[in-house]
Amino acid sequence: MKKPVLKSLTVALGVAFAAGAAWAEVKVGVTVSATGPAASLGIPEKNTIELMPKEIAGEQITYIVLDDASDTTTAVKNTRKFITEDNVDLVMGSTTSPNSLAMIDVVAEAKVPMISFAASNRIVEPVDAKRYWVFKTPQNDHQMSTAIVEHMVDSGVKTVGFIGFADAYGEGWFENFSKVAEARGLKIIANERYNRTDTSVTGQVLKLVQANPDAILIAGSGTPAALPQKTLKERGYRGKIYQTHGVANNAFLRVCGKDCEGTFLPAGPVLVAEQLPADHPVKASAMEYVQAYESKYGKGSVSTFGGHAWDAGKLLAAALPEALKKAKPGTPEFRVALRDALENVKNVAGAHGIFNMSKDDHLGLDQRARVMVQIQNGTWKYVK
Amino acid sequence: MDWSIALILTQDGVVNAAIYALLALALVLVFAVTRIIFIPQGEYVSYGALTLAMLELGKTPATVWLLVAGGAVALAMEAFAHFRGRSVPWREALFWYAALPLLTLAFAYAFDWQTTPQWARILLTVTLIAAMGPITYRIFYQPIAEAPVLVLLIVSVAVHLALVGLGLLIFGAEGYRTEPLWDDRFSVGPLLIPGQALWVIGASLVLIALLAWFFSRTLYGKALRATAVNRNGARLMGISPNLAGRLTLLLAAAIGAISGVLVSPITTLYYDSGFLIGLKGFVAAIIGGLASYPIAALGALAVGLIEAFSSFWASAYKEVIVFTLIIPVLFWRSLTTHHVEEE
């Protein structure tokens, strides 16, 4: 009596495994900072994941989304969970640079490709044995710094003041910006720091106004970047004010109000997608994202940060068919194939630019990935 | 640095100090009466400011639902206590946990708050946030009122984290500013004094005077003072420690909400910015040894001024300088105070 039962059990198990293999799906683990200090960036990214393709080349894609609360330890924990428990083929995220940098070791060790949504160039540069597995979608601060310096030089600015966050964001910007500025003959005559949570920056602003530079660059992200600008206007500063692409969302416009009129900033083309000339290479792909996002979350809800997540989806869509030719999802061979395919994507148009990856460039964006924008009448205006 | 810059920095420091002073007073009050080191004090500041901002934008702030839900929980706890055979002050419980939250809810939905005058919005905001005080006490602190200070502190940290999380859920990650009460500016010598700064300093002084009057002239104020001096003694005199706790947190929440309303036109506030403001109030309260109101107020002035001047000289180290201030104070305190066992 016993034997047939065992046999049928074996058969049943065999069928189940066969079915499992036939229904193999591509699993993507996404960790975003939907709460904590980076929440205003993480929330649109999380929203964007829901818009990403559920099926590519006939293959089901499952996204497992976890929140890391802007915390490095949690981001690493999430990544380990994706790899050991969910056996993912690709890791996406996280929102912030410190989180993404900490995740590199984990994915490199497990040999799982990863696409980060964070800005720091150190995430993908230099492409060493570990970063071999890591890609990212947001523009480097260096690219954005070049845009600002170019615009400053073109409008006759000679001296610059700098005020930035007293954290990795501000320091990173100062490092990149000062290098580019020096090379183009701009003199930085004041350099100040403030905290995201500060309620007053009068002291720093007084020092900037005293130095009286031709232009001031504020390196802050989100609404906290409005405070120095408001204080500068209050203290009667009349020079040009530049912000970074970290402020490119509508909440910043609301908080800063009329004090931000005339401010210049570099940004991804998606911010002003509708105003781009029809022949702009990124117009169509940027508009696609804006329409997809706004039809789900309402008019005017789109932000540039979600665009970075969208672009990761675009990269996946471009690389997946190549990888599927070589191996089955869920296997180490497939992960290697997916990594190779990601490294070889060419002319993938996303919300922020055109991606051309290579062995030494795991970002793949060029000058088409940034435009200069000015704040006019409380909206973003494309200037160049 | 010349005199005009020193004056501007002083002005900036004094305005911030006025807010820190209010929070320091609230912290000293809560600690003296209930022995709670009240970490969530800062949350009332951000809740107050952001609730007002929501009303200005014509949205109904979800804090009002938080209030109603909290009231329901508190009421359920009272009912549970009733069935366990304890005597429950039902008249007060119904007023604080049911009538007031529901009334606030009705008001919040009855008007189009975008078109009402600013003072009406402020009144609703302060009422709403203040009403959270007694509910917070009933739910989190009353069941463990006799616990050691350390346990109360740990619960405070938990309440703080919960409120920050709820704040993100209710208000979102972005910051808000509210309309100033007084938009004019006055130039006095090199100074450019915004009307709102005068409001902040004036309101703080009036509030401090009102508190002084409350504690020296009214029956409830005297009851709170008696509880602060000796809890058991006060209880023997018929002062309910639960009533004292509720009343204290009502005052603390009201002070927090008023601070938030005052400071929100000057700076952008976020769901989590209350903590740091509260922490600076805490430094001031520590300077006063968590016991002395006037020294805490002076401590607040010191914190505000040091913050303003260090932001000019060494902006990257500003917070470090402010919080390092606490070390020599603690050192000096530990040398001069004799520790008295509570029990």
Automatic annotation (TrEMBL), chain A:
Native species: Hydrogenophilus thermoluteolus (Pseudomonas hydrogenothermophila)
Keywords: Signal
Family that this chain belongs to: Belongs to the leucine-binding protein family.
Residues annotated as signal peptide: 1-24
CDD domains in alphabetical order: PBP1_ABC_RPA1789-like (cd06333)
Start and end residues of each Leucine-binding protein domain: 25-372
Domain of life (superkingdom): Bacteria
Keyword Signal set for record: yes
Name of the protein in its database record: Branched-chain amino acid ABC transporter substrate-binding protein
InterPro entries (alphabetical): BCAA_transport (IPR051010), Leu-bd (IPR028081), Peripla_BP_I (IPR028082)
PANTHER family: BLR7848 PROTEIN, LEUCINE-SPECIFIC-BINDING PROTEIN
TrEMBL record, chain B:
Pfam family, one: BPD_transp_2
Localization per Swiss-Prot or TrEMBL: Cell membrane
Keywords from the named record: Amino-acid transport, Cell membrane, Membrane, Transmembrane, Transmembrane helix, Transport
GO biological process: amino acid transport
Sample GO molecular function, one term: transmembrane transporter activity
Membrane topology per record: Multi-pass membrane protein
Any one GO CC term of the record: plasma membrane
Membrane-crossing segments per the record: 20-42, 62-81, 93-113, 119-137, 149-171, 191-215, 247-270, 282-304, 316-335
Keyword Glycosyltransferase in annotation: no
UniProt signal peptide: none
UniProt record similarity statement: Belongs to the binding-protein-dependent transport system permease family. LivHM subfamily.
Name of the protein described by the UniProt record: Branched-chain amino acid ABC transporter permease
Species: Hydrogenophilus thermoluteolus
Source organism phylogeny: Bacteria, Pseudomonadati, Pseudomonadota, Hydrogenophilia, Hydrogenophilales
